[in-house]
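>> received
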Amino acid sequence: MIGVGVGVALWVAPGAGARATYGARTTADEPQYLMTALSLAEDRSLDVSDERAQGRYRTFHEVGLPIQEAVRDDGSRISPHDPLLPALLAVPVAVAGWVGAKLALAAMAGVLAALIVWVAVRRFDVPVAVAAVTVLAFSAAAPLAVYGTQVYPELPAAIAVTAAIAALTGPMRRGGTSTLLIAAAALPWLSIKYAPIAAALVALGLVQLVRGGDLRLAAALAVGSTVGGLVFAVAHVAWYGGLTPYAAGAHFSAGELSVVGSPDYLGRARRLVGLLVDREFGLVAWAPAFLVVVPALGALARRRPSGALALALPLAVGWTTAAFVALTMHGWWWPGRQVVVVVPCAVLAVAWWSGTVAAARPWVAAAGVLGALTFSWVVVEAISGRLTLVVDFESTTAFWHRAVRPLLPDGRTTPEGTTILQTAWFVAIAALAVAGWSTVAPDRARRPTALAADHGGT
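>> returned
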């Protein structure tokens, strides 16, 4: 755990020196989080009007900063983003500015990697070496490695989801129930878009406790979640003027829900595959290890080991939210942002499969090396000024991206042949899932209602 965690933190930290755009070190929502963190550190307030008026953002956003905050009746400005990430970064920002914030996130990347190793070994009986290699294959590559220095709530949210999985797959006594409650409660405070995942995790916990006959803990979890939701709602109405932080935004004159746009659900259905294999914004374009996730999930579906549902349900909810609720897949950020929160579910599925099927291990290791090389290549190019992490990252000369790019569908400009490529990938993904299914036999001794692994400790 310690070796993987420290190694990942050191590996991703140089990304702090990569520029987001040519006119700024950070861009899009990043400066907003940093301004709020600065305001919390200095003023103990969410109001960023003085930071904006004084140009405090110039150290991390040299050009003029676009306005996201609406001016309130008292002249204050509240950034339309949930407050937990700025609260976590307040001390690092106060000590070392934007560099401190980015290094704090690099440390969180290490914590996440170490925690996934622990869950893989202690909850899914994955051999230590296999768990370490699998976690490194994903943690040293995009998107986890990139968001190790990008100022977004994705990594803290992934940590919360992993902690919840650890609780759900262990003995759900007081410690496990408390861990689940805290982790689920933290998710909406990091971003309201994580609320469906939090609800899914709590639902799994309630089912497990009720089936186990522990109605007192089930009631405590239900009451705690309800109270947490009420506190969230009251605080947001008081601070932001609505149930979501978007109520404080300058761009949502049509209401808070306008943040999701006017969904074309049939059109957005293409993202179900695009999030994985889009030419620029798909995960596979930057980290081939994500191809291994598909057969791993196929094997997980057939064997259904204890704890499988704790991986599959959050992953399904998070992926569906990213596909149908998020305004866009091709946003002003590094690819994969919308699904980072549930990437630990995929990593644990691959770790379990690699621990069960030895033939999968060389593929995971090889894919991990390619992903790590791609990430490091992009970071070197960004630090040297050849490209930036937001404006033109796709112009990288990294070998893997250049090689696989022509084989992936382009969901942004949809050139001729895109539909054929999308269909081909639908078929390929189905074939990979079937291949993974065939690598294991169903566990006929498994209890049908089992959710948690039978391990001691919390």
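>> Residues 2-438 form one domain.
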